[in-house]
Amino acid sequence: MKEIKLGTSPLTNQIYAGYLDKSGTHWKEKQDVTIQALCCVIEHVERFGEPVVISKQDGTPEYEIIVKKLS
Hints:
Layout: E1 5-8, E2 15-20, E3 27-32, H1 34-48, E4 52-55, E5 61-65
Protein backbone atom coordinates (compact mmCIF):
# COMPACT_ATOMS: atom_id res chain seq x y z
CA MET A 1 0.00 0.00 0.00
CA LYS A 2 1.30 3.47 -0.87
CA GLU A 3 1.96 5.84 2.02
CA ILE A 4 -0.47 8.76 2.10
CA LYS A 5 1.24 12.08 2.78
CA LEU A 6 -0.25 15.27 4.18
CA GLY A 7 0.92 18.79 3.46
CA THR A 8 -0.17 22.42 3.62
CA SER A 9 0.16 24.66 0.58
CA PRO A 10 2.18 27.80 1.38
CA LEU A 11 0.26 29.65 -1.35
CA THR A 12 -3.36 28.68 -0.62
CA ASN A 13 -3.09 27.40 2.98
CA GLN A 14 -5.09 24.32 1.95
CA ILE A 15 -4.32 20.94 3.50
CA TYR A 16 -3.71 18.18 0.96
CA ALA A 17 -3.58 14.40 1.20
CA GLY A 18 -2.13 12.28 -1.55
CA TYR A 19 0.92 10.61 -3.00
CA LEU A 20 4.36 11.96 -3.82
CA ASP A 21 6.62 11.00 -6.71
CA LYS A 22 9.55 8.60 -6.13
CA SER A 23 11.86 11.47 -5.18
CA GLY A 24 9.37 12.53 -2.49
CA THR A 25 9.45 16.16 -3.56
CA HIS A 26 6.44 16.62 -5.87
CA TRP A 27 2.79 15.68 -5.59
CA LYS A 28 1.86 12.86 -7.96
CA GLU A 29 -1.80 13.15 -7.01
CA LYS A 30 -3.44 15.12 -4.22
CA GLN A 31 -6.82 16.09 -2.87
CA ASP A 32 -7.90 19.07 -0.77
CA VAL A 33 -8.85 17.72 2.67
CA THR A 34 -8.76 20.99 4.62
CA ILE A 35 -12.24 20.89 6.17
CA GLN A 36 -12.10 17.13 6.85
CA ALA A 37 -8.68 17.46 8.53
CA LEU A 38 -9.78 20.36 10.70
CA CYS A 39 -12.96 18.53 11.73
CA CYS A 40 -10.84 15.52 12.73
CA VAL A 41 -8.59 17.75 14.85
CA ILE A 42 -11.64 19.27 16.56
CA GLU A 43 -13.07 15.82 17.30
CA HIS A 44 -9.71 14.55 18.57
CA VAL A 45 -9.16 17.53 20.89
CA GLU A 46 -12.70 17.31 22.29
CA ARG A 47 -12.26 13.58 23.05
CA PHE A 48 -8.66 13.87 24.28
CA GLY A 49 -9.44 16.71 26.65
CA GLU A 50 -8.33 20.26 26.29
CA PRO A 51 -5.74 21.51 25.81
CA VAL A 52 -3.68 19.23 23.60
CA VAL A 53 0.00 20.15 23.85
CA ILE A 54 2.40 19.34 21.01
CA SER A 55 6.02 19.20 22.13
CA LYS A 56 9.39 19.27 20.40
CA GLN A 57 11.51 16.09 20.34
CA ASP A 58 13.28 17.22 23.51
CA GLY A 59 9.94 17.48 25.33
CA THR A 60 9.69 21.27 25.29
CA PRO A 61 6.06 22.34 24.68
CA GLU A 62 5.73 24.12 21.33
CA TYR A 63 1.98 24.35 20.53
CA GLU A 64 -1.26 24.21 22.45
CA ILE A 65 -4.50 23.32 20.66
CA ILE A 66 -7.75 24.45 22.26
CA VAL A 67 -11.23 23.96 20.81
CA LYS A 68 -14.07 26.26 21.83
CA LYS A 69 -17.62 25.47 20.70
CA LEU A 70 -19.45 28.66 19.78
CA SER A 71 -23.04 27.46 19.87
